[in-house]
Amino acid sequence: MPSSRLSNFASSDWGRAVTWLARLIVGGTFVFSGFVKAVDPWGTLYKMEEYVAALGVPATHSLIVAGVFGLCALEFMLGVFLIAGCYRRSTPVVTLAVMAVMLPLTLWIAVSDPVKDCGCFGDAVVISNWATFWKNVVLTLLTVWLVRFNGRAVTLISPAFQWLAVVVCIAFTGYVSCIGYMRQPLLDFRPYAVGGPITDDSDSEEGAYRFVYEKDGVRKEYGEQDELPSEEDGWKFVERRQTSGDEKAGDDTGRTFRIWSEDGEDDVTDDVIDSDRMLMLLIPELESVSPATTWKINSLYDWSEKMGVDMLAVVSAGPDRIAEWKDLSMPRYDIFTSDDTAIKEVARGNPALVYLDNDTVRWKSTLSALDTDRITSSDDPQAIMEPVVDGRREATNCIMLFFAALATLVAVSMVPRIRNAFGTARRRRARAASESEPAKRDDKAPRAE
Q1: Whose C-alpha in 37, 301, 425, 448 is 20 to 30 A from the C-alpha of 434?
Q2: What are the DSSP E strand ranges found in 100-184?
Q3: How many CB atoms neighbour CB 293 within 10 A?
């Protein structure tokens, strides 16, 4: 289509409809993507770490965390601006710049398959790497249209108030991300949600795990049904890993959160989770835990023992690392092991705590967010229920407050337009009346004989 014909089409009613449709599709996708990332910043952080490792880019934990918070705010803000028409010319350009990075990145991911999924929609919606690439192709084409013709579409928020939309978006995503990072996600899209079971009755597939042993520099793998070598013969357990053909960890139809013995050889899930009340300490990265946390953990164990609450630790580490942790923290609680991916599925944070009541998750929290002094100073066993928070209600309140602020900006922006519209209509009526007055006077004038 020639440039002039395309320009004429964009100015027509159908063209404006296409522009609005593109704004809604691209903007809605960015809003949803930014929101689910902001709700669960730990999940976004884990995915970013996978990307960094796959690309071989050196980055510190703090730098990746800052990148996660910035990415959530940027995606969400671009989506809101596209829908509301804020910064009509610059917003599509920035969006196209983002897509110029994401499109080749997702093509590389689809071809080389370095990660299981892109994580563009967090755990809320998981799509394949190729589906992610084609989705980005469509978004890029729509964004190209917006770069050229978005300036002709109406804006819902007046330019004088668009800076307030920036503040509202950053405040919303910043608050939601901070809660998700410091405490737990307000909305839990993972399978082990509060109010649900921690285990599953369905049988897991045989051969789901492989055990790696080493002797004299030689490593061998064994399945769950194989006879494992004896350490007396010089074999040393190295690691346990999940095979690629298994069901996805955390899938509702086949959960794979399984607890293993400290040496990582025996599945003790059914033996461990058999008490009415249990406080489970989860540490997916034992080497990253600060020694300052040991006092908190040990004081929680002392209080739990006094109140009749079982407490144990589930960590992801080898025997040598666990031995170092024991020398450092001198724990009196039992330590078991599990895969780091499974631990991260259950609760976010390092360390994190999960309280179970008859195999049902009652609450989750990072250790840093837990008021251990208040709990351990109480003689009431129900003090353990203090961290219970209705995350869904809090998320609903945040979303309603955000929409109320955005609606206020739209309403205030519409006031001058409505006033101008009424003023224009009034002036037209006055002009029409003044033009008709001479005609009436001419009709009433005496005609010459």
Answers
A1: 448
A2: none
A3: 17
pLDDT at 113: 78
Give me the residue label for tokens 């689809």: 110
431, amino acid identity: R
pTM: 0.79
Is beta strand 360-366 parallel, antiparallel or unpaired with respect to 352-357? antiparallel
Among left, alpha and beta (phi > 0; psi -120 to 50; other), residue 122 is left
Q: Roughly what angle, to the nearest 10 degrees, separates helices 162-182 and 61-84?
A: 140
Residue 87 pLDDT: 93
Q: What are phi and psi of 336, to 5 degrees?
A: -125, 175
Q: What is the pLDDT of residues 87-128, one digit of tens each?
A: 999 999 999 999 999 999 889 888 887 777 777 887 888 888
Average predicted confidence (pLDDT) for the chain:
83
Residue 89: name the closest of 145, 146, 138, 144 by CA. 146
305 has pLDDT over 80: yes
Maximum separation of any 2 CA atoms in the chain, in Å: 136
DSSP string across 18-60: HHHHHHHHHHHHHHHHHHHHHH-HHHHHHHHHHHHHHHT----
Long-range contacts of 10-18 (CB under 8 A, 24+ apart): 10/148, 10/149, 10/152, 11/152, 15/149, 16/152, 16/153, 18/145
Which helix (H) or strand (E) is 66 found in, with range?
helix 61-84
pLDDT tens for each residue of 148-202: 988 878 889 989 999 999 999 999 999 999 999 999 999 988 888 888 888 764 4
Cis peptide before 58 (omega within 30 of 0): no
Residue 44 to residues 60, 342, 396: CA-CA distances in angstroms? 15, 16, 21
Instruction: For residue 169, give Cα distances in angstroms to 184, 269, 304, 384.
Output: 21, 44, 42, 35
Handedness of CA 35, 36, 39, 45 (dihedral sign): negative
Residue closest to 267 by CA, chosen among 225, 230, 212: 225
What gap in Å lies between CA 184 and CA 179, rounded to an integer? 6
Residue 382's SS3 state is helix
Under the banding of pLDDT at 50, 70 and 90, the label for residue 251 is: very low
Closest CA to 1 of 22, 19, 15: 15
Q: Is there a contact between 179 and 39 (Cβ–Cβ < 8 Å)? A: no
